[in-house]
Amino acid sequence: MQKAIYLDNSTITKPSDKAVAQMLPYLSERWGNPVAPHRMGQELYGAIEESYKRIYGLIGAKEQDDFIFTSSGPEAVNHVISSTYFDITNSTGKNHFVTAAIEEAPPLMALGKLERQGCVAKYIQCAKSGVISAQEVADAISPRTALVTLSWANGLTGTINPVNEISDLCKERGIRLHLDATHVLGKLFFDWDDVGAEMITFDGSHLHAPKGTGGVFVKDGHKLSPFIVGGSDQAGRRAGALNVPGLVALGVAALETLDSRDLLCTEVARLRNKLEEGIVDRIPDAQPLFVQRERLPHVTVMAFPGVANEALLFHLNRKGVYASIGGGNTQQIGLVLSGMGIAENLAQSAISFSLSRETQEEEIERAIDIIAETAAKLRHLSQKLV
Known about the structure:
alpha/beta; Aspartate Aminotransferase, domain 1; 3-stranded antiparallel β-sheet
């Protein structure tokens, strides 16, 4: 039996063998609490410091910038939004929050909670371009806007928002900008100073770190009140004993992510293009979407006219090709594309494929055959039923 082909890396990635191996001693041997005033805590300091250095290297953060280690990307996003409410809204009365209608569940649901507290949320509708422009943000904000919160890139479509322009606008208007960088870390070359967002969050499980890892970067000169209270851990920024095994694993994954960035931007992008071209060669009316836009190098969303994406995903799963139509923390791809103004029949035929640094050429060649054959059979069956 052939090995399954995993093309759902925007949902979660396989933990790095090296990251898992290096975290294990901190589960079974060096399991102390770093705030403890004795050797069991103190012997962890070196590993913690080295892990923080590696994580800061992910975005070029400086020593004076803050980093809060969290249990996930969603927790990190909720921390930024909740703390903005307590730190800015309660003291200034600015109760207006801006995000995109196609965002993932954490910011949408977090803002829904704030709306029940009397805040106003503005959800920007995304155009067919697949991105949120600075002009659309300008049209959405007001003098009462406390926060603009956006994903840097969409993990299903691969489209990348013009964050530098949005950042310039927010600075000019004195508005806090938060970017979730989960899908761009290790895929784009950037420096945090050039981007300018005050807060950046990410989920470690998308970077080949284990589940239960994530974080918030906070630019020097800005503060976030704690989201989880009850102790002096992480200098009082998040209560709860520091997850040292997870932090060590995330540090390893961060280092590997940077080391493999060239690979992602060249070889993995080539394999992504090969997947698109191979499918179109076999099914001429299949449509890779957003190919004229700047995209993440490892993601493609493809529409298969005349084929329901749920049926295609189901049959691909049975044949060992794992892809995504959204769900969980992300919206359904059909809703995302329809919200951009893409025709409903096309939107509901779309599937997202996301590769990783571990994706092999042989896997892409097999995937092309399986996807094309499966889509053709489903289309033939649907035509017979009409």
